[in-house]
Design a protein that fits this description.
This protein has 375 residues and is of the alpha/beta class. Helices cover 42% and strands 14% of the residues. The protein has 2 domains: 8-261, Alpha-Beta Barrel (TIM Barrel), CATH 3.20.20.70; 270-373, no CATH class. Helix 8 (197-204) links the parallel strand 8 (183-187) and strand 9 (210-214). The protein starts with 7 loop residues before the first strand and ends with a helix. Residues 22-253 form the DUS-like FMN-binding domain.
Length: 375
């Protein structure tokens, strides 16, 4: 498998595939990563506690039976851990602090190593939240964004891990992106079991940050549901402890999907109410009442402007063809997973594979979203 098959990157960091090992306090160190996640595109070590308050909080958590990382010199430990991970995956370090200066110091270490720094705004243990660390940062967005701005002054690629459905998620996402965060690591938690797929879709429609999604990823079906709502990457936590081969299985399955389909995280169709804005690439000509109009309006286009935009893109590409399709061009045709003898007949005549067709559709989706930013 080529390391650039997925063409995934965030800043100076490239990912060979869209599967990550999520951080678990006291568990995900370099030894665990090398044993369970050698095939991953990203391993996130930690969370590591950087200042006196978070170190004490972690010690208190250990005293009541939780696993946490406590170190006499967390900065030396972080540097050693980054360097100890095998050459396969890219590396991030998840960190906690009540003060920005230790975060800045850790960011410099990560940047020098070509790694990512991940700010933990996720931990909900009382020992951490009571001192203003972890999930407590979500309820103090000015302080959280100030941390982000100070960290980004180092030039490090910055991820922020957050827990969903705690505050106004869309407001939070927009503030983090405006402050300069590169990656959003979203635990799409909701009451009950499973991930909040609607939240993932809504977050995808609200940001251009690289999006890692997490929560209850135990098989490829759950991962695929996240991908189809807009996740660029999914991360695995407890699932890998129950099934040590899980990451390897996910990598194999997503690679096969991408090779066959050409777009591993292709969105759902907008007309079904499940597709994010990228799904506009599969929409037919907007001549009838349909959810497409709401999506078009959200991007600031009229129906005619949207139609012109898609047709202009199609010129000179294989999407321009398709006289025998419903609207006379492949540019208006649906996702390859939806059966359509008209579309498939055109693809066969053109000698265009399913994967090539979907790659063109992805280029169109990117084009639509890019054009909307200039409005």
């Amino acid at each position: 498998m080529s390391d650039d098959l997925f063409n995934l990157k965030a800043g100076y960091v490239n990912f060979k595939n869209p599967i990550a090992l999520a951080p678990m306090g006291g568990i995900t160190d370099s030894d665990f990563a090398n044993k369970h996640a050698a095939d991953a595109g990203l391993v996130i070590l930690g969370g590591y506690n950087l200042d006196e308050k978070t170190q004490q909080a972690a010690a208190d958590m250990v005293a009541r039976g939780r696993e946490e990382f406590v170190s006499d010199d967390p900065f030396e430990h972080i540097e050693q851990e980054i360097n100890a991970v095998g050459s396969g995956p890219s590396v991030a370090v998840n960190v906690r602090s009540t003060d920005p200066e230790p975060l800045v110091k850790a960011a410099r270490i990560a940047k020098d190593a070509g790694a990512i720094l991940e700010l933990d705004a996720h931990c909900r243990q009382e020992e951490m939240t009571s001192i203003g660390a972890g999930q407590a940062l979500l309820k103090d967005i000015p302080r959280l964004t100030e941390f982000v701005k100070k960290i980004k002054e180092t030039g490090v690629v910055l991820s922020v891990k957050v827990r969903g459905n705690v505050v106004n998620d869309i407001e939070l996402v927009k503030e983090l992106e405006s402050a300069g965060a590169d990656i959003l690591h979203l635990d799409a938690m909701m009451e009950g079991a499973g991930a909040d797929l609607r939240l993932i879709k809504n977050v995808r429609d609200s940001t251009s940050m690289f999006l890692i999604c997490n929560n209850s990823v135990t098989d490829f079906g759950t991962a695929k549901n996240m991908f189809s709502r807009g996740a660029d990457m999914v991360s695995v936590a407890r699932g890998v402890m129950d099934n040590p081969a899980l990451i390897g299985q996910l990598v194999k399955n997503v690679t096969m999907l991408h090779e066959d389909m050409g777009w591993y995280n292709a969105p759902k169709h907008v007309c079904r109410g499940e597709g994010d804005l990228r799904g506009l690439t599969f929409c037919c000509l907007p001549v009838k009442q349909c959810p497409v109009h709401g999506k078009i309006e959200k991007l600031g286009f009229t129906a005619q402007e949207f139609a012109d935009l898609k047709m202009d893109f199609a010129k000179g590409t294989m999407l321009e063809y398709g006289d025998s399709t419903c609207f006379g061009s492949l540019v208006w045709c649906c996702k390859i997973s939806k059966p359509c003898f008209l579309r498939d007949g055109v693809l066969e005549t053109l000698g265009l594979s399913d994967a090539e067709y979907m790659r063109l559709k992805k280029e169109l989706a990117d084009h639509i979203l890019e054009k909307s930013k200039s409005r």
